[in-house]
Write a structure and sequence with these properties.
CATH topology: TIM Barrel
Enzyme class: oxidoreductase
Number of strands: 8
Bound molecules: flavin-adenine dinucleotide
Strand content: 5-15%
Structural class: alpha/beta
Number of helices: 13
GO molecular function: nucleotide binding; proline dehydrogenase activity
Shape: globular
EC number: 1.5.5.2
Cofactor: FAD
Catalytic activity: L-proline + a quinone = (S)-1-pyrroline-5-carboxylate + a quinol + H(+)
Length: 307
């Protein structure tokens, strides 16, 4: 019940100002956001690497309103990639990007987002890594998939995300489960209407398993983005049935969530990639994490009261 309310608040400027200024916010934000600067996140990448984990790095930000902000987003990723290169961390870290941060919603946004993301994909390829295009709300996806297809012409390792709550996703999965593709499957984190998405958790979970089966039986590289223990064991079974070796798929989880499970799966020999978000524009990302688990909201409210 609370989830949709929090998701609606994630798009409100008034709430953004309130939450950002609230006492105790930082303490809760720190659980999900690995610092504000490239300097903060590098030790996190090094620590993950020492534990046998890989990362995908997200410079937080979305729904920007000017072309200058879109260019700044591109430059923030280029700075990050430069630092990874200097430290020889290119093979441990890939990038996750939200096209809305690259200008997708502005006038001429499709072309603008493509123009801004391309240099990031090029720079990532130059240090031996890849970029994955996150999935945002359903109105942005046709543009995201078109940009994905365009980038894959020159950079076939460019990944994309699909969301099991959307009715369209089984068809998208069939199209994407082709040789060389890298596809992250998640349940979906946005507030979507009943005309395009399942609203019920059991249906979203069942769809996740159907879509995962398509990916596992296909020829691409599935990236299983979930913390759900039931789905994780089903994924292991589907991989076994599809005859996939341990390096022919990977698990992905979010920084700060079920960290013990990150280590357990890595210790079993699985590839485990931790989606690690950092930066100052954390509001939208943070609110989606609160919406996913009501206990997080209680923790947040308690930290405001006790501050
Ligand atoms: P759930 O059934 O929601 O959760 C299973 C269990 O995981 C819960 O019982 C709880 O123990 C734990 N858990 C889950 N979420 C939280 C939380 N916030 N805090 C504490 N515990 C939690 N969504 C998109 O729409 N687009 C994307 O591009 C995208 N990228 C993602 C990348 C990765 C690597 C991951 C893991 C998720 C991504 N998501 C994305 C979010 C995703 O859509 C879900 O909202 C989120 O993963 C919660 O779903 P779940 O599969 O973990 O299952």
């Amino acid at each position: 019940m609370l989830g949709p309310v929090i998701l609606a608040a994630s798009r409100s400027d008034k709430m953004r100002r309130f939450v950002s200024a609230a006492p105790g916010t930082k303490q809760v934000v720190d659980r999900f956001i690995a610092g504000e600067t490239v300097g903060d996140v590098i030790p996190v990448v090094q620590d993950a690497a020492a534990k046998g984990l890989e990362v995908t790095l997200d410079v937080v930000g979305e729904d920007i309103t000017t072309r200058e902000q879109a260019a700044a987003a591109r430059d923030a990723y280029l700075e990050l990639i430069d630092r990874l290169k200097d430290l020889g961390l290119g093979t441990r870290a890939e990038m996750s990007v939200k096209l809305s941060m690259f200008g997708q919603a502005l006038e001429g946004g499709h072309e603008l987002a493509l123009a801004n993301v391309r240099p990031v994909v090029e720079a990532a390829a130059a240090i031996g890594t890849t970029v994955t295009l996150d999935a945002e709300d359903h109105t942005t996806l046709d543009s995201m998939f078109a940009i994905h297809e365009e980038l894959r012409r020159d950079f076939p390792g460019t990944g994309c995300v699909i969301q099991s709550y959307l009715f369209r996703t089984e068809d998208d999965a069939r199209r994407l489960a082709a040789s060389g593709s890298r596809v992250r499957l998640v349940k979906g984190a946005y507030k979507e209407p009943a005309s395009v998405a399942f609203q019920n958790k059991a249906e979203i979970d069942k769809a996740y398993v159907r879509i995962l089966k398509i990916l596992m039986e296909g020829e691409g590289y599935p990236m299983i983005g979930t913390h759900d223990p039931r789905i994780i064991s089903i994924a292991q079974e589907l991989a076994r049935r599809a005859g996939r070796k341990l390096d022919e798929y990977e698990f992905q989880m979010l920084y700060g969530i079920r960290s013990d499970e990150h280590l357990r799966l890595a210790a079993e020999g699985h590839r485990m990639r931790v989606y690690t978000a950092f930066g100052t524009d954390w509001y939208g990302y943070f609110m989606r994490r609160l919406a996913e688990k009501p206990a997080n909201l209680l923790f947040f409210v308690r930290s405001m009261i006790t501050k």
